[in-house]
Amino acid sequence: MAALTEPLDSISGSASSSSSSSDGASSPEADGERLPEHVMELVDREIGGDLKCLKKVSGLLEKLTAENKALEEQVLTVSSSVPLRVSAALSAAEESRRTLEELLQKERLLSDTLLRHLQGSQSWADSLGQKLGQLDTVERHSAPIPPSKELSKRNIFPTIQQFLMTSSVWEAVGAVGTMAKLDLGLKESRCAHLQAHLRETLRFWHKILKDRLASDFDEVLTQLQWPFLSPPVASLSPPANAAELASQLELLVSQLLSLQTSDDLTAESKLTPSRPGLAPATPLSLPIQIMLLPLSKRFRYHFAGNRQTNSLSKPEWFLTQVLMWMGYSSNFMEEKIQPILNRARVELCRGLLSLVQEKLASDAPRLLYDDALFCHLVDEVLQFERELRTTHGYPSSLPGALPILLEESIFQKWLSVEKKMAVEKVDAMLSAEGAWSSQYRDITDVDELKAPDCAETFMTLLLTITDRYRSLPCPRAQLSFLALQKELVDDFRIRLTQVMKEESRCPLGARYCAILNATNYISSVLSDWADNVFFLQLQQAAVSLGEEVWGPLGATEVGRLASLEGSIFEGLLGLLERLKGDMLGRLLDAVMREVREKAQPYCRDRWLSLPSQSDQATMSLSSSACPMMLCMRDRLLQLQQLLCLPLFQSFWQGLAERLDHFLYQDVILCNHFNEGGAAQLQFDMMRNLFPLFGHYCKRPENFFKHVKEACIILTLNVGSALLLRDVLQQSQEEGENFSSEAQKPLPESALNELGVYRLAPCDVLILLSLRASWPGK
């Protein structure tokens, strides 16, 4: 406000001065004594005492008038803007003051309420604090009472020293065991100082006793030539002190086992959390720990640090070394240690396996960016696992080296590398020169499925992948590999479809048939796998995991999988069967196009004017049917050589069905037959067409039922034909069902007596109408 008022004051003062000057200039005589001094100085300076200079007065007056007017305009401008800003500032200040008063009022209300609440609850807080203090005192003093009484009563600490001084080792071991039990009793106590004191005392005496027993145990083991770093050589005669060594060994192992509880307690603070994927850190028995020390030192000497034997590219070196140590020590553990310590050999293998796990956990992450070395590591670990389980009988209930490969980053790398390698192999096998020929084509007994080399190699690849993940201990990991296999199968199916479309212009070619054989081979192998116990177990595991594996499925699909009605490969099998059916259809279409073309003269043959059978010396195949028959014979022989047996059976049966329909529709129903024509048709079918298919089944006429039954109707003698026509017409006119003794309708019964089962009565009437040899005609 001061900054605003000062300019206003100066302007007002200037204006007043100007006004006074103007007034003084206009009437100096009236107010001469009240004129300001600076006005008088101005007049003297401008006019002076020379009266001749009075002519300057008018100019001075104009100048002063202009200055006065300018000052008035400035005053008006400032006075119109400044009051608005001042008013706004005053309004904001007033609003802030009002808000502050409201907040202060609320704060006073909250303070009063809180103070009243604290005053009311103070008594409760004081009472609760007393109770909690009493409970804490009781808990602190009650927990250590039994152990402290035990300590004071037995006076264990001096006793252990006395036992050791008198070489009473068993008694010292018992005293340390008692101390370990007391330590366990104090585990839930809150007396931290007493517990720490007891633990330190236990650690002190345990170390003294353990070192003494370990030293004696080492001496005995050394005399027994432990460790075995090469194949043990059986001595011709046992050492002189063999019985004494066996007695000392049994005694020391038993004493060390008695220290197991205290050893586990003293080792608790030294345990480090195990890496994910490593076996659970269950402590090894104390004798095995001591026996492992020289082997562990050798392992770390050779396979840690900068030694040449510590090579990332040679994991087989340390894996083979561990397996050799297991083999060399097997007999000694079973004969010397196993009678004293149960499962001693397994415990030693578990200890050596922990070295392998530690080494693999260190090396595997370093190979994630080198596919070749990573694949080599996985292969060696899988081989190690197989030998560990089979050769050395390591129990399947205990984890081996494979859990290291199941760590998330390592497992994902394994999956990606497995897929990459498989895709590269598929590319190579499909582009190979002999991809579509069978390697067993010259061996008839072996080459039943006629699978091309690419399909057989592909399924061998899938089988290899199965063998690699079969021993994984985690069903979820196995299902991940199964998903990869299904993805590879679907990719291979798509590739087959692409090649098939390229070859579909020549469906009778060898490559097209090889693709069809490949599809059938993969489908049959997957069908066998679906009934395999391993894949059935995987299916149950997938059902138990639910949507995590299958995604959202309906209750029906899940129920079918759970009840084993469905298959884990069901989707893939459906796609493969669809491809196989499509290819078979194309093949049949191509053959039937040729047959139809060759059969056109046969369809237009003169069936009404052929001589009767009695007028011919011998019946022979119609000349117009020869091209058709030769075409069928050649295609059947050709495809019998190209297709595997199941596919060829489907092919010739489908061809017979289509041919039966074609001959019935285009030859029989499109022509009329005299007696000779009907006999010739029957001869062509029964003595020529059916025997073509007689090489593949015993009763080929059963696949040509329309043609066979039509020949029966057309070749009936006149009397039987007339009687049959009357029966069928009567039945058709009356529309009633007549029953025979067998309770069958009369028309069907009459047809069945003639050997007609497929054709309906109306169809038989049509066939009878095609006969030209009726009485009176």
UniProtKB/TrEMBL annotation:
- What biological-process terms (Gene Ontology) are attached? endoplasmic reticulum to Golgi vesicle-mediated transport; regulation of ER to Golgi vesicle-mediated transport; retrograde vesicle-mediated transport, Golgi to endoplasmic reticulum
- Composition bias of kind Low complexity appears in 9-27
Does this UniProt record's set of keywords contain Repeat?
no
* Domain of life according to the entry: Eukaryota
Q: Which GO terms describe its cellular component?
A: Dsl1/NZR complex
InterPro entries named among the record's database cross-references: EXOC6PINT-1/Sec15/Tip20_C_dom2 (IPR042044), RINT1_Tip20 (IPR007528)
State the UniProt keywords alphabetically: Coiled coil
Keyword Coiled coil assigned to the entry: answer is yes
Positions of region (Disordered): 1-36
Q: Which residues form a coiled coil?
A: 54-110
Q: Which family does it belong to?
A: Belongs to the RINT1 family.
Q: Report the protein name in the record.
A: RAD50-interacting protein 1
Species name = Scleropages formosus (Asian bonytongue)
